[in-house]
Design brief:
The complex is a heterodimer of chains A (370) and B (196). With 370 residues, chain A is of the alpha/beta class. Chain A has eight helices and 17 strands. A six-stranded antiparallel sheet of chain A has the order 9-8-11-6-7-10, with helices on one face. In chain A, strands 15-14-13-12-16-17 form a six-stranded parallel sheet, sandwiched between helices. Chain B has one domain. The longest helix of chain B has 33 residues. The chains are: A alpha/beta (370), B mainly alpha (196). Bound molecules: flavin-adenine dinucleotide (FAD) and FE2/S2 (inorganic) cluster. The site of FE2/S2 (inorganic) cluster has 12 residues of chain A, from loops.
Chain lengths: 370, 196
Amino acid sequence: MDFSVILRAVGSLAVISGVLSVMISISEKVLNNYGICEIDINNGARLLKVEGGSTLLNTLAGEKIFIPSACGGKATCGLCKVKVLEGTPSGLLPTEEPYINQEERKQNVRLSCQVKVKGNMKLEIEEELFNIKEFICDVEDITDMTYDIKRVRLKLAPGETINFKAGQFMQFYSKPYGKVKEVVFRAYSISSKSSEHDHIELLFRLVPGGICTGYVHQALKVGDKARMSGPYGDFYLRGNCEELIMIAGGSGLAPIRSLVYEVIENNLPHKMRFFFGANTLKDLYYMEEFAQIQKDYPQFTFIPCLAFPEAEDEWTGVTGFVTVALEQQIQNGEGKEAYLCGSPGMLDACIKILKDKGFTDQTIFYDKFS
Amino acid sequence: MPQISPIVIFFASIITSNMILSNFLGMCSYLSISSEYKTATGLGMAVTLVLTLTTFINWAIYHFVIVPLEIQYLSYIIYIMVIAAFVQILEMAMDRYTPDLYAKLGIFLPLITVNCAILGVTLFMVIRQYGALQSLVYGLGSGLGWWLAINMLAAIREKLKKAKLPPGISGPAISFIITGIMAMAFIGFSGIFTIQ
Ligand SMILES: Cc1cc2nc3c(=O)[nH]c(=O)nc-3n(C[C@H](O)[C@H](O)[C@H](O)COP(=O)(O)OP(=O)(O)OC[C@H]3O[C@@H](n4cnc5c(N)ncnc54)[C@H](O)[C@@H]3O)c2cc1C
Ligand code: FES
């Protein structure tokens, strides 16, 4: 074959793709350049001058204002809501629609991970969110609680403290490791006592193929630095009742442990019943600790339920799903509040039973670990 | 260059040579994004816009670059690059100037790049040796035809939501059946215009 043919083919392809990429980068420069934008938060309480062009969530994070987010901006958690009063088209993106109800639509609530900063904006953000801080902690200890759950104990930087309500969660940032090049952040509930202000503990259940839990299980070591922000969330003790019904599965135990300690450390009068669901004996953890609490504080009852106990487990406790235990042991919703944590499937099943028993949206509180 | 009137090409590409109903091109987004009338309309609009413009751009590239350089064997790669680049730029421009429409189309815009109807129209345009105006009109007509077909399917599927279907055929199966029936109905138009 003639050499010039090859040259012409390669050359023309190179020139055409070159021209196209130059056109794309020019359009990007021209079209995606929104200059410096002013963001007015809560009617002048904070005024920010930021570079336009990226999402509101990331822009605000760059200014140290941390909007809650469990999915890291993928529009799958619906936690990153803010009120956008001015500065963005009123129509919702298709990605936002499942998370914004009619009431919120009227108030211009949007998902901040989907809205782009394209000009001056006016926002309304809950005051509380200004208290959310970023922490760089030392990993002090990593303990295997079960074959797939690790407890990570983190020490805050000297002089730094955290104030959180038992039940709230942190956003934990992964780092690139192995083949994973991205940095992601995910929500993890705080399992330690809210009276401890210089340490926090998180429980990580390994999700096969999961980026963040993979990082913690495979790469994170004692002595490493870990980055997180928080505290977030409205899953915390209300206590307008006599008895707290607590229900958890897997790593959902984390916020419940914190809640139980909040009640007993503050000498609150509430009775507590904690239903903990697992498949087999090897999925149970913190058993001795909860047994000890039950001994020391008669107001607390611990009810572990095994769905599929194996013969060698020699299980004598409740056998079956948590829903079975709930069905049998809870008569009605009078004077009770329910706190649930765990996988969406389990939560939905339990909430249905609780509602049949007379619990309402005002007495059921939950965090879905989705 | 065949002397077919652009008006004939326009109507033929909508009705008798409909991209979906007579060529069965662009089926995957047609099937997957036709469960709601509103979104189907958005996608149809975007496909029409991209088809019209890329067919014309590819016409110019074919005649002013590919033919003079005699690199016809690279034409497929070049068309696809042009379509991908064009969709990217269009996305940015819409984000900037028509944010409302951009918001409505959302992820359907980038999906258009891989819609085979777009490449199909470009290839037909080359094979049939259309001129500039003919290509423009052909792109527009094909887009409108695709839009018409997806809207019809979406409208029928919305009605079907309330119907009782035998369990085995709900979902893609019934969509194929509907499409087949629509295609047969469109055969009724054949002979009014011919462009092939
Ligand atoms: C409010 C809140 C509190 C949470 N608290 C905790 C906690 O205390 N401890 C804890 O371990 N997790 C907790 N989670 C879940 C956690 O945020 C992550 O979703 C989870 O750890 C998976 O992250 P990943 O990066 O490893 O997986 P990803 O890379 O995000 O996901 C990989 C794949 O696994 C699927 N997947 C994601 N999550 C789960 C899951 N839970 N089970 C099965 N499949 C899944 C995804 O769909 C995806 O296909 C909480 C979530 C929320 C919203
Ligand atoms: S960050 Fe999860 S939906 Fe926006």
